[in-house]
Amino acid sequence: MSEYTAAAPTPTPTPAGTGGTGYTKSAVQLERERYRAARKRRERLIAGVCGLVLIVVVAVAVVSSPGWDLVHQKFLNGTEFRQHFGQILHGFWLNVQMFVVSEVLILVLGLAIALTRVTRAPGLAPIRWAATLYVDVFRGVPTLLLVFLIGFGLPALQLQGTPSSPVVLGCIALVLSYGAYVGEVFRAGLNSVHPAQRNAAKALGLNEHQTLRHVVLPQAVRNVVPPLLNDFISLQKDTALVATLGPLEALRQAQIASYADFNYTPYLAAAVLFIAVTIPIARYADWLQRRAIERQWAEAR
Description:
77% of the residues lie in helices and 0% in strands. By secondary structure, it is an all-alpha fold.
């Protein structure tokens, strides 16, 4: 039944126990809500059936493929998974440590780069140009290539105080690479704050520093939290690139385990660990984005 052919819009008397608000839903409104609920259930049922059919079709196609037995033996071996999962989990802890330390440093570097790029003070022009050059260069270099350059090139300079640990060198490469991306995310957030906010702050007597700290930065950070989380999901995965320098993190442990009998199931174990961390962060980022959209719609009403 269409929602527009429902019963006549006769006002319904206020039932007892409604708190005395004097409002109750009309028959038309109740019919409209029932229609929408039924339509939503029907859409969910159709989506569920379609998803289930797709999964069954893909599973049947994979299992019936000519090379399925070999793939199952080489990539989905339960014995290999259980045998090497412990040491891969131990290596994954190093990935988590690199991720956490690099993330903090990237936030600091990215925010400093963004503030430098949005400033218009003439005396800071050389620093602004340097920040722009840094963003252009490090965003253009692939992260893996940067890990090689920092990991092998920096120690080759033989400068006093240069770190020799591959973990530290790998983290430096990740910070330099992602600092450029995060700096641009922060800059977009700073530019998204309407100029009227600054004018209002000045009208209240706030100076530039107070306006930036109490008005601009809180709004800018709130606006860019979802894209920042997306960048950190990529960072969490790219900690595996440090394996090229030799540290025994998850990917390196999986490589060593697979070399023992040429079974690639340990790679699957490493992938499971990365997915176990990235999926919750991705869902949290989606939730934040949905909240931001709902807030914008609410403010526009």
